[in-house]
């Protein structure tokens, strides 16, 4: 951002997102519950920050040169791919994005629209060589492209430690008692946690996890073991491993949030406060409410509003899909 306040393209427009007071959640708990509006990044999600951090690191290491031919490859649930593709476009690079075919149609259509070379693969567990992460790694190795490796590339968490965390601290005036966030790569939670803990070690860091993920048991001091159930949320949770970005992060505990509880927040924010978010943001807010209730009135809890609801119209706002999954329908879609 320049002194005049004019951003220099995509790279200059990422970050400095508003922190929004969530009225209903705050009134329900007697706390201040604040959502970092990451859906307002130019690529529409919190993953723009990770994409920028990873690509800037590649530039710093001489792997990519602005204005000269280059290719970046990544395996992603969609949002990191969108951020990488747009950031690459701005520098004259190409992007090859490997995505499980189960992801929302809206994200897949958007990736095609912005010029990414989209490669769809069957959804397979991480232990399977056909898993989208392994496919993207092999593709990068075979072609000599840069592999973004968002799960284990520590430039991801570093981007949040340098930007997202300090922004939250400044926006709250340092008056923050807890932070909740779900994890896919772990970059957002780890980076923000380190930034906040460095300023006040008493800030509680709580990992928000969907059912069927193994991260909550691990964060609560146990083994990497998936909890019962499954989730319709995309891009968060890990069934069998802890990503490199999350290793060593200063986490105080975890909350497992069922889909119905997360979707209640998605629909409430939309119809009562005019804030459109996706499933992971709903899960984050649900976790923030739990933490606020445990802390008691008068505390401040911040969380991440990861992306917008429009990326999930065919799922979270589709009555047929919701009925099929046994999930509650918002009254205006019933």
TrEMBL record:
Cofactor(s) the protein requires to work: pyridoxal 5'-phosphate
Membrane-crossing residue ranges in chain numbering: none
Entry keyword Oxidoreductase: no
Signal peptide range in chain numbering: none
Pathway: Amino-acid biosynthesis
Keywords: Amino-acid biosynthesis, Pyridoxal phosphate, Transferase, Transit peptide
Pfam family, one: PALP
GO terms under biological process: cysteine biosynthetic process from serine
Domain Tryptophan synthase beta chain-like PALP: 12-307
GO molecular function, one term: transferase activity, transferring alkyl or aryl (other than methyl) groups
PROSITE patterns, alphabetized: CYS_SYNTHASE (PS00901)
PANTHER family registered for this protein in UniProt: CYSTATHIONINE BETA-SYNTHASE
This protein's name: Cysteine synthase A
